[in-house]
Design brief:
The two termini are 46 Å apart. By secondary structure, this protein is of the alpha/beta class. Helix 3 packs across helix 4 and helix 5 runs parallel beside helix 6. Helix content is 35%, strand content 28%. It folds into two domains: 171 residues, P-loop containing nucleotide triphosphate hydrolases (Rossmann fold, 3-Layer(aba) Sandwich); 73 residues, Alpha-Beta Plaits (2-Layer Sandwich), CATH 3.30.70.100. The strands form three sheets. The protein has a six-stranded mixed β-sheet with strand order 6-7-8-3-9-10, sandwiched between helices. The structure holds adenosine-5'-triphosphate (ATP). Adenosine-5'-triphosphate binds next to strand 1, strand 2 and helix 1.
């Protein structure tokens, strides 16, 4: 017998979307999402990580039935996105980047209204609002207008609104964008709690630490396509070797580039890149043995070293390995 847990909650194949921009001679086509294949299991927190313009929001909007795909297929909670949109909508919650709270309405009123819009009866809507205020830690502000809330409180109201009808799948677009670290941690806790209740969460982020700490599995998207997919740990393991970063005392670009050339020629260095901040990033097999050789090579070339650090691979290293660019700089 198949356990519900084994069933994919989101399955896409060849999903794509292009936009026409400009007019006349300036007309161009942007392939925002270029043939996406992915599977998200029930109860997973799945993160879509990528730089600005990678196609994250476009994907989310297609999966949430807000934007018609140009091609490909998707099945969400067992319903075909193309032919059973109403059923898809019943099964999902969608929280857009800017959120949807009104300034002059209280959280309690918003929650009751949202539940009523989902066809839930008056008494049940009120009791769901009370439960949501409690579980999202909002009871203390429940009867104040949303305009008086902090960014973190408002974000929690957004999420509470998105799940008031108890969807199977929750889509969150950049859930912690612009929040302070404490509020971000609070939102992460709420997302984990929803997973604990069996919800599948699909979120977009351009924060590496968010993808690493919160997501069970991630897909790294760039230029409308997936460049890497797996658990954060497995993706980092896939980067064989280690990274050494080197700062040179003279911060001029010419010196950093000269150091890059010198170090790229060392046997222990697999690749050398000068970052925009002037720091050199070196891919090496074993940091402990490479570091003394790097120091010696720089000394021989008359370049004074300011800092040298050894790093375990990060998701940024995964992105760099797959795209040749750093996510931080994209
Ligand atoms: N309505 C539109 N018309 C024209 N181009 C669009 C439209 N919506 C998105 N695009 C383009 O499609 C590409 C993908 O955009 P999308 O918003 O999906 O990226 P994103 O990964 O969500 O970025 P961000 O992190 O900045 O939100 C971008 O090049 C964007 O400029």
């Amino acid at each position: 017998m198949t356990d519900d847990k084994d069933l994919p909650m989101i399955e896409t194949s060849g999903l794509r979307k292009s936009f026409r921009t400009g007019r006349g001679r300036n007309a161009a086509t942007v392939d925002a999402v270029a043939g996406l294949d992915l599977t998200v299991a029930q109860g997973e927190i799945f993160g879509f990580l990528g730089p600005n313009g990678a196609g994250k929001t476009t994907t989310l909007r297609m999966l949430a039935t807000l934007l018609p795909p140009d091609g490909g297929d998707a099945v969400i909670a067992g319903a075909d996105l193309r032919t059973r949109q109403a059923e898809v909508r019943r099964n999902i919650g969608y929280i857009a980047q800017g959120g949807g709270t009104w300034d002059d309405v209280t959280a309690r009123e918003e929650l009751v209204l949202q539940a009523r819009m989902h066809g839930i009866g008056k008494a049940e809507a009120r009791s769901r609002a009370v439960a949501a205020l409690d579980s999202f830690d909002l009871t203390g502000y429940a009867d104040r207008n949303c305009r008086t809330y902090s960014g973190g409180q408002r974000r929690r109201v957004d999420i509470a609104l998105g799940v008031i009808h108890r969807p199977k799948v929750l889509f969150l677009d950049e859930p912690t964008s612009g929040l302070d670290p404490q509020s971000r941690a609070h939102v992460w806790d709420e997302v984990r709690r929803l997973r604990g209740e069996g919800m599948t969460v699909f979120l977009t982020t351009h924060y590496l630490d968010e993808a690493d700490a919160l997501c069970d599995r991630i897909a790294i998207i760039d230029g409308g396509g997936i460049v890497a997919e797996g658990t954060p740990a497995a993706l980092k393991r896939s980067i064989a070797g280690e990274v050494v970063t080197v700062g040179v005392a003279d911060a001029s670009v010419a010196v950093a580039e000269k150091a890059g050339e010198v170090l790229a020629g060392q046997a222990c260095v697999r690749s050398a890149e000068v970052r925009k901040d002037g720091v050199l990033r070196l891919a090496v097999d074993a940091g402990e043995t490479a570091m003394p050789q790097i120091m010696r090579a720089l000394a021989d070339a008359g370049i004074e070293l300011a800092t040298i650090e050894l790093h375990r691979p990060t998701l940024d290293d995964v992105f760099l390995a797959r795209t040749g660019r750093s996510l931080r700089e994209s």
